[in-house]
Specification:
- This protein has one domain (4-231): Copper homeostasis (CutC) domain (TIM Barrel), CATH 3.20.20.
- 38% of the residues lie in helices and 19% in strands.
- The protein has eight helices and ten strands.
- The protein has helices at 12-18, 41-50, 70-85, 104-114, 131-141, 156-170, 187-194, 221-231, and strands at residues 4-9, 25-28, 55-58, 90-93, 118-121, 145-148, 175-178, 198-201, 204-208, 215-219.
- The strands form two sheets. It has an eight-stranded parallel beta sheet with strand order 7-6-5-4-3-2-1-8.
- Strand 3 (55-58), helix 3 and strand 4 form a beta-alpha-beta unit.
- The model has no long low-confidence stretch (mean pLDDT 94).
Length: 234
């Protein structure tokens, strides 16, 4: 089985740690501690200089809900275009309407911006009650992939069953990518039970700043190397 491994990065230091590893894709963010926000253009440019690994970029102007004002949407469209124009291999975003369903108009606009690049609908899907209806909507828009992050916050087995059901029902039309809560101990079970072909995670470690004593997170090169060894068992 061929499994694609996507690593979620919060900045250029994470890219430095990953640049020579045999991973399939990088999702570039800023502020992972806030759930991931839009990275700067300069960060993307530097990341593209450092590695040939495909890089998709988050477009999310703030933390909180995925319902955005007209001004926020205008900003997101402009950011997405600039990121694509500066080498992003795809855009990761999720926009809901006031009814907590997919904002079709906004996502269609994003689709026109990314053109032939990937468009990924992120964990905003976890906030939608009728996921089957949402998936059908996203398929009709032309979304390439759906990132489901519920594994960290829900009953693990129930979440796995839900992803497996979605993949069985719609996997021939759109790619499902589990993330959040996946680690070295459960990744083989996640893949075998859901039958997905792509996995997402940050696989980070905590670092204590020696001066401020504050803790921050960065990609763990050691964990990812170990993870790649585990995935060879598939």
């Amino acid at each position: 089985m061929t499994l694609k491994l996507e690593i979620c990065c919060g900045g250029i230091n994470d890219i430095e740690l990953l640049k020579d590893l045999p991973i399939d894709r990088i999702e570039l963010n800023s502020a992972l501690e806030l759930g991931g926000l839009t990275p700067t253009i300069e960060t993307l440019k530097k990341a593209k200089e450092l590695t040939d690994i495909p890089i998709v970029t988050m477009v999310r102007p703030r933390c909180g809900s995925f319902i955005y004002s007209a001004s926020e949407l205008e900003l997101m469209y402009k950011e997405a275009k600039r990121l694509i124009d500066n080498g992003a291999d795809g855009i990761v975003t999720g926009i809901l309407g006031d009814d907590y369903r997919v904002n079709v108009e906004a996502m269609q606009k994003m689709k026109t911006i990314v053109k032939d690049k990937e468009l990924i609908f992120h964990r905003a899907i976890d906030s939608i009650e009728d996921k089957a209806d949402a998936v059908n909507t996203l398929i009709n828009i032309g979304i390439d992939r759906i990132l489901l992050m519920g594994l960290a916050s829900e009953d693990f087995l129930d979440s796995i069953k839900r992803i497996a059901h979605l993949n069985e029902s719609f996997g021939n039309k759109i790619e499902f990518q589990p993330g959040g809560g996946i680690n070295e101990d459960n990744i083989l079970d996640v893949v075998k039970m859901t039958k997905v072909t792509s996995i997402h995670g940050s696989f980070k470690e905590s670092i204590e700043d020696p001066i401020s004593k504050e803790t921050y997170y960065q990609t763990s090169q050691k964990r990812i190397i170990n993870l790649l060894k585990i995935l060879k068992r598939l």
